[in-house]
Amino acid sequence: MNKYTFPFNSCEVPQNNGVAQPYSTTINFILCCIIIYYLLKSNNLYSRLFLVSILIFNIFHTFSHTTHVKNFKHSQFFLTHFSAIGSTLFFLLLLNHVTKKKLMNWQIYTLLFLYLFDIYIITQKVSHIYNIITFLILLFLIMLFNYSYLSGNIKQSIIYIIFFSAVVLFFQIFEIINCQYILKNFNYFPFHIITEFSACIPIYLLCNSFYKI
User: Fold this and answer.
1) Which helix (H) or strand (E) holds 30?
2) Which of 72, 93, 179, 192 could form an SS bridge with 10, CB 3.0 to 4.6 Å?
3) What angle do CA 23, 38, 96 make, to 5 degrees?
4) What whole-number distance in Å separates Cα of residue 24 and Cα of residue 33?
């Protein structure tokens, strides 16, 4: 697991010509279209900024599956990951606008510690899965810190978002551990598409829950 580098080790064998990982690219392109749909329907600045940040993340994600820039092995992950981290800041801004409540000092320090810890992990050049876990923890904490101030419908959506995000993490770890076995024994089945499909659910829920709030 320590050798996992996105997108090069994602479990879809890259093509030598054309789109590097066409299945993953297609799924993420469709997801970009869904995000744009909600962006166009959004009714306030904070929701639009959040949706734009998600869209930027997914554009980098899609590009990473489209073309593998081997001379800059980690740069594609950095662009994708930092755009995801950036989206949490806009999410925090959106929830602050909705709840009209400021975070307590210990909550601010907790988030700040995680942002700095994420940078520290990158400097250690370990598996990218640890940065993905850090991102999810940040996302979960931001939602939980604001949970009690939100409406019943949004609270229900947050429960689903956290659950399905945990499912995504499960599939991602399963993929990393078992990729070579899957490719060898299942005729090079692109297992990464299952991870991508599962990731569509929490992203859809985020868009649907916060595009008009």
Assistant:
1) helix 22-41
2) 192
3) 115
4) 14
The four Cα atoms 3, 177, 79, 168 give a dihedral, to 10 degrees, of -160
Per-residue pLDDT of the chain (213 residues; tens, 9 = 90+): 446 656 667 888 888 888 889 999 999 999 999 999 999 999 899 999 999 999 999 999 999 888 887 766 678 888 899 999 999 999 999 999 999 999 999 999 999 999 999 999 988 878 888 999 999 999 999 999 999 999 999 999 999 999 999 999 999 999 989 998 998 898 889 999 999 999 999 999 999 999 988
Residue 153 structure tokens:
């419908």
> Are 42 and 212 in contact, with CB atoms under 8 Å apart?
yes
Tokens standing for residue 162: 């956290």
In eight-state DSSP terms, residue 148 is G
Specify whether the CB–CB gap between 118 and 131 falls below 8 A: yes
Q: Is the pTM of this model over 0.85?
A: yes
Nearest to 73, CA basis, from 12, 4, 119: 4
Residues 6+ apart with CB under 8 A from 2: 126, 127
